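Two records follow; treat each independently.
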Amino acid sequence: MRRLIRAPFILCLLLVLSLLAAAPALAAAPSGDKLAKLLQRFEAYAEKNRQAYGVPGMAIAVVAGDKVIYSKGLGMTGLTGGTPVNPQTIFQIGSASKSFTAGLMGMVVDQGKVSWDDPVIKHYPSFLMNDPWVTREFMIKDLMAQHTGLSPHAGEMQAFFGFTTQQMIDSLQYMEPVTSFRSAYAYQNIPFLVAGAIVSRYTGRDYGASLQKMIFKPLGMNSTSVPKAGLPSGANVTRLHQRHAGKVVMLPEEWDFMDWVFQFAPAGGISSNVMDMTQWLRLHINRGKVDGKVLLKPKTADFLHTPATPAGVKLVEGDLFQYCQGWVYVRSAAPYTMIFHNGDTTANHAMMAFMPGQKAGIVMLSNLGGVDLLDRLAHYFCDLWVGAEPQDYAGEDLKKILAAEKEAGIPPRPKGALASQPLKNYVGTYSNPVYQKVKVELRGKKLALVMGPKKVAVELRPWDRDVFLAVDIIDPGEPLSVVSFGTGIEGKVDSFTMSVVANEAGGLFKRVE
């Protein structure tokens, strides 16, 4: 979620339709010895790259038609002291949770309680965007289509600082747009929280309980949950890992930010295993139906998978990307259509994808966040399935990662940088409508921002006079933001701006004490 978007829609849709019409017929689905060789080749490629990327462990399952035809665990649950991963190992699925929120909303639509074209304020009267016109015009279907007009990932740092789901929803009114509404793609999390709240209004249950009754229990997803701690407890649960300065590190079991995904539950708070996730994949491959149970009307399932927002195109490769409702639509040059969603919690990664024309799909979960290996593997798998010779997607991606890591780290201060004022001059309490009151404190001989209900301390390193670098709270070897202090007419420090939240109430924090 952390590392973790806007061409006229009609023209793009016509382009998609023309590509579909022009696409040559695909080869029949592999079977028998051909299928066995395909899966063997894919497994070898996955294992080779798991080791190359430094992923401690991952699980894979493949669905064809209405059956799970392959499942496997690779590696270990922890970098040290772990156990072998198997198909029942539980991982965080991150933003793949968005598809479940869209599915819940589809069920509420099927019940006639909500329409996709309804204004959000009809069902959530306190909903407020920065622009009153956008507030009035914002429809249910806009909540999950990633075209709000806000900057990418707007407001999501709040979860790390301990702000509640409700506080994040309320902060939308202070988020300044960077494009006009519905004109461009930009990935968001907070609008999915609004969708989750609307679902809860009509189910009479909180988000987790709604999932349990309406999806998990009917599908037999008995190992899937929305844990408040960020991960459930248990023997067969993975650990969390990140890449820091080119090395994979395992996070402590009591990591300070374990629970941040729970605050974003409708956008990324689910934990599951690949066997449970195959049930969700089967449901979507079969347009809302599994084992005779209809959870979504076919029309509604199709709507969830229908392109809504152009998200990008790779002209050389011939790939076209569009965001749907909690899903992403890709038209590949292979050619085939792939519908997918990935997820990243900064410490686990997930990828689920299916080809509707082939009635086949794959789900993969891993315990290393911040890298897109599983996304590359999904593309490789789909190429293999349709008989196209795949590129070395993972190998090319790893080269980019390693090159970027060489340039990473906190840069040295510029030549001729001026000394800061005495650090006590910056100490005080400041306020911002989104992040509310924050304190600048002296901790030893260093300056720190203390932010949010969790009172997270963000180290400030001197850069040039009244400009400081805030150190990333997730990876202390990386910069988070530029923090620039301002002085009033009397020469006293009276404000600061934080570049990383420049579009959140202007990123301006005014001194109040």
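The next record belongs to a different protein.
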Amino acid sequence: MAFIAQDEINKIRSSASIVDVISSYIPLTQRGKNYFGVCPFHEDHSPSMSVSEEKQIYKCFSCGATGNVFTFVENFLNVSFAEAVEIIAKTVGISISMPLSSKKETKFKEEYALMDFVLKIYQNNLNTEVGQRAIAYLKKRGLLEDTIKNFSIGLSLDQNMLYTILSKKEYPEKMLLDLGLINQGKDNLYDVFQNRIMFPIHNLEGEVVGFTARCYLKDETPKYLNTKETYIFKKGSILFNYHRAKEAIRLQKEVIVVEGNMDAIRLYSVGIKNVIALMGTSLTKEQIDALKKLRCNIILMLDNDNAGESATLSIGNILEENNISFSIIRLSGEKDPDEYIIKNGVAAMQENIQNAISFVDFKLNYFKKNKNLNEASDLAEYIKAVIDGLKNTNDAILKEVTLQKLAKDYNISYAILKEQLGDRESKIEKKPEKKEQVIENHQSSYNKVCSKILFYMMHSKDFVKLYQTKLGIFPTKEHRIIANEIVYYLENHKTIDLADFISYSENTNVKNEIMAIICNEKEEILTEEEMLELLEIIKKKIKKEEIKKLKEELKSEYDVNKKLSLLEKIAELKMEIEKEV
């Protein structure tokens, strides 16, 4: 995460009262020695978040959100951990010895600096005589001067002007090629983007990583040209305007998701600032994770064409499977949100936003397409599609209302509809377990023991010492890494403090796994004897795995003496396991 020393981070954390910090964002009420408030990280209606002043951590008993003062600010404000440390440092009046920067920012520092320089060149090109024609085009499209500046819109010129400037600055040609700024021709290098209006694309942290380039002097194919996929620009991890919109999203607890950059720019420029764009009609895991981090309702407003409608269905299914709250807007008349606002105005768009429909209502309309519901076969197909579409929702009331509506509108027995939904759900739930699932279930109880041991190691240096003397190693890589991080932390700090260890975990490759353990484990009083029992379970597991490995070796061994040796080792391990029972 940072170049700031862990001791300095710990000093900042210990100087800030977690109760004071969290109560500056949400109301807290004291109950006994802890404080409670409505959790801001899920749809909470009663205070389920507990804040411990003694331990300087918080935990929600409903959604499991947990952490220290830094992680609360990080997640509440949707900022990086480094930014959260800086915010808390300013709050308590501590000057940080050196600026914090993420690994990603440090790793690609030269690339980000180059892309920012290129952006400035493109922006400056608007001041040329040719640039005035581009500005005239943008204004004709309804983009005011403030919008052009806010979104850092620029212009690429012809005659390889960008490459000429960058080569004089002695930027490495390989870097320019790798970042998609120039191409290799048969005899020369040339600018990828020429005579196009340039819209910068930022990553989630706000660094320029690529461009969308639009033709404007004449119709060209393609009309829009994006930077190729590079090691800093991966389209599937980008949400256009995310860095700019996240504060408005946090305040409104709602985000509007559109398809294209121009749709997002248009909405933002007319005052609807809680908007981001997918840059297409698909949704990746990285984008889902970013949307989840926003912890707000999503309004999906894709283009008003067949592709946009199909994408609404597929993306809606993905959001539903990931338990993300969302609703749908299907605009009428114009092709996309950009054109809709130009022709109908902001008030009409606001009305659409206020009247967004549920995903079920969208599907009720979608499945009617190309069907004559007066025909028995089409009606039956439609009913089956709707019932199948209900299987992913956990909203029992929504299911009930939908079935009642179908029964009333089409004069079908409610009992039959209910039975059909039940059959489909039971088929989904009662699928026979595959061999891999059975193995996973057996493995889960072992993983729970490992998690419990690690959880209490994070709370007590005595338990860390027990682990070192009685076990020393976990058989699985993930648990070994976490245990090593705990041991390393203790060796360097001579004590275990959970709130500080959470900050320390930001620098590890197992941060998410550590937080999951803290989230999922319930803190209880654990005696030394009970810890020893847990360690014995793992020791037996290791020995059983060793026996299994030796038996496999035995199958392929033909030397009699070596076979006897293997059998003796297996017998010894079995006796050790029996003695421990």
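Discussion point: The two ends are 45 Å apart (CA to CA). How would you locate this feature using only the token line?
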